[in-house]
Design goal:
The chain has 353 residues and is an alpha/beta fold. The protein has twelve helices and ten strands. It has a ten-stranded mixed beta sheet with strand order 1-2-3-4-5-6-7-8-9-10. α11 packs across α12. The N and C termini lie far apart (57 Å). Bound molecules: pyridoxal-5'-phosphate and iron/sulfur cluster. Pyridoxal-5'-phosphate (PLP) binds next to β2 and β3.
Length: 353
Amino acid sequence: MTLDPITLSNLPSNQPPAQNESQSWQTQLANVVTDAFELAVQLRLPEHYIQAALQGGRNFPIRVPQAFINRIKKGDINDPLLRQIWPLSDESVPPPEGFVMDPLGEASSNKAPGIVHKYHGRVLLITNGSCAVNCRYCFRRHFPYGENALSSRQWIESMDYITKRSEINEVILSGGDPLSNNDSRLFSLVSAIESIPHVTRLRIHTRLPIVIPARITTQLIQRLTSSRLNVVIVVHVNHANEIDEEVADSLKKLHQAGIHVLNQSVLLKDVNNDVECLVNLSERLFSCNVLPYYLHLLDPVIGSHHFDVKQAVAQNLMALLQARLPGFLVPKLVKEIDGRPSKTLIDTPIAPT
Ligand SMILES: *Cc1c(COP(=O)(O)O)cnc(C)c1O
Ligand code: SF4
């Protein structure tokens, strides 16, 4: 396909008004921006960036909620939030050795529909629900998880899998993004899990509270806090700028309701690969009552190599971070190696004094 020459002057000169963040989360989710032109106009990006975005976006479309766009600095192609969502031409070059389609072997660890069972005592449940945001570095970029909603028969099969294994005491809702499911679907899922006696903990891995903070409704909090399950929410923030006041409010609400909130990040070149940035992130998270959990080394998925930070560089960063922060604000540096019984902890050298 050849593209017509693109000039920003062809685009509507009036910027679309920034969407109102007081809209319901459903409306915000339905109106996520998927169009490179629209985003380029809103964010005043140079026109040559659009070509690359159109090309990269063909494999893994642009997708970003307005509430997240509002936190991106206009006209700054190096903005750390923009880099997470904007396809660069780097995505389309042949991948370096070691970068593959399915680095975690998830395609082959499906034990029952929607179930990924790799670790003792806990299972991932892929609840469908597409993501509200498409993160360019995501290892799921080549899998249409979001399109595979489980049928009711498959539900029964996956619940059956958990019921039959009494050693499973924790179910982790994953996705896609489990919180992009509507409440009725989400709550019936929670009820189904509650009815399995040996499950005591429910964990929700989600980026929704960050990209559409309005998702944290009173109704959602009530359902989770009235559960007999102990609830842990693991959000995903890579840079302190992702937490504006609205996000902070949502995160604090969860904490005030007695829900544990942890954060996982991915170490990303030109997004957060610097000590100050990681210090600020941990401090900002804690100011919202969130504790850092994991800092992941990038999973080597095709199309993401330009985000890669070498392990030795990451270890040095961790040493510096450890010398700056109280221990409880230092995330664990981990990587996922297929076939291991847990995430693999990467040890940290001692920073030179
Ligand atoms: C990461 C992951 C988990 C959770 O691991 P924790 O170390 O408990 O956070 C569980 N199952 C799978 C398949 C995972 O990839
Ligand atoms: S699974 Fe997480 S990291 Fe991947 S695109 Fe969705 S929100 Fe982003």
